[in-house]
Amino acid sequence: MKRLTILSSLLVLSFFLSLPSVSSAQESKVRLSLKASVMQRLGVNTDITIVYSRPGVKGRKIWGGLVPYGMAPGNKESKGKPFPWRAGANENTTIEFSREVLVEGHKLPAGKYGLFMIPSKKDWIIIFSKNSSAWGSFSYKESEDALRITVTPVEAPHMEWLMYGFDDLAGTSATAYLWWDNLKVPFKIALPRE
Predict the structure, then answer these.
(1) pLDDT in tens, 128-153
(2) How do residues 107-130 score in pLDDT, each as one tens digit?
């Protein structure tokens, strides 16, 4: 009888081990908003890496539509609290600095940050959150902000798939940007003077 119990336990265990895990099943699906990353080095050894997912415009009204102006209204996932835009799709967008930098003139220590944005018709708030591992921005907490800056977006030619990049490369500084639909949202990153 003891042998039968051990044998049946082993069979049950082997059955569960043979099932694909939920995360590997999700990873095997092609996402509608594909994951991407971009990296830029400043100076000799300061790397900036942005990891994000790329939603498409697909004929939708993006600014003030799919991406509302101001904080998004609370929903079930956010437990009714309003939240900022995750600056991409799927997991929240992250930005990582290998060394301390200045973002629009404000110091930001080395580290990995969740990147969130609060758009408006005129100026945008960009948030660097100490929480870089959330899914989306439903669990966003202002108390986890490392830095908030305000920038002004600029009109740009149509970009179907959201993308991040770097312009104005000057050796020890660059302008990072989000570009989607008909807007670019730039923010300057520079090395601190020593």
Answers:
(1) 999 998 777 777 889 999 999 999 99
(2) 999 999 999 999 999 999 999 999
CA-atom Rg of the chain in angstroms? 21
From residue 186, how far is each of 1, 154, 164 by CA, in Å? 71, 8, 10
Residue 104, burial from CB neighbour count under 10 angstroms (0-12, 13-18, 19+): middle
Predicted confidence (pLDDT) per residue in 73-91, tens digit: 777 766 766 779 999 998 8
Per residue, what are the HEC states of the chain? Answer: CHHHHHHHHHHHHHHHHHCCCHHHHHHHCCCCCEEEEEEEEECCCEEEEEEEEECECCCCCCECCCECCCCECCCCCCCCCCECECCCCCCCCEEEECCCEEECCEEECCEEEEEEEECCCCCEEEEEECCCCCCCCCCCCHHHEEEEEEECCEEEEEEEEEEEEEECCCCCEEEEEEEEEEEEEEEEEECCCC
pTM of the predicted model, to two decimals?
Answer: 0.81
